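Bit of a strange request maybe. I'm writing a small parser for structure token strings and I need a real example to test against, not something I typed by hand. Could someone generate the tokens for this chain?
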Amino acid sequence: MFNYFTDIIVLIFLGFAIVYPFFLWIAPLKKIDIGFYRFNLGMCCIVGAIGIASFQFLDSSFISKIYVWVWFGAFLIITALYWNSDHINNMVISSLALFGTGTMIGVVADIIFVKIFPGTWFIVLLGSAITAGVFFAMILGHWYLNVVALPINLLKKATISLWVLLTIRLFWDLVYLSTNTFTNNFGISRSLWSFMLQFDGFLLAVAFFMGNIVPIVLNFFIWRTLTLQATQSATGLLYVSIVSILFGDLLFKYYLIQYGFLV
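Reply from user aminoacidic:
Good idea to test on real output. This should exercise your parser:
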């Protein structure tokens, strides 16, 4: 796994910074204070900088690097312009996120060499969206301490969006693991479920459990606490969900790069 550490960092950090701004639609500026947007935009700049810095160490194409730097430069400019502004346009931020999503095509192509490229791009962005979604929900949960009378439905929407993303990945993984096989060095093909019972596939089983099952179960309890208006309890559970999702995504990315598994 350590042989692919830089590749994994690029996929997780860069994907996170690119997808995260889409979640700002859940909490419009008119319903929350400017500090929330300032914090989130600044965080995306820092996380994106780590991803881009790591990307420079990879043997990637010059075109991909240009596109990534154009996205990052534009995002820095928008963050600077909106830093002290009372009028923030989510359409502009989302447009940059869409451009960044397109740049991930080149990034993924440089890092992962598998035949089914559209599926690879989709699963990378899906994992990034899940990671970004749980972080957004956690940060939003903390904001209930800063903003008086912040509507509870904002955190509920964040939880629902995370639930939808987790459900999509769970369904995808179940279908993929059930319909694909792995051929070992001796030419013997086994189902991926059987592969997960072997030594090399044990961490894939851990990733499936930590990245899918645990967060979905936690989301159920998070929703129950939100129905009781206990936002801080829900935020505490989101911390646990973050650890679980990050751990699962780390292992998923390893099997994606090492074996080409689209999970």
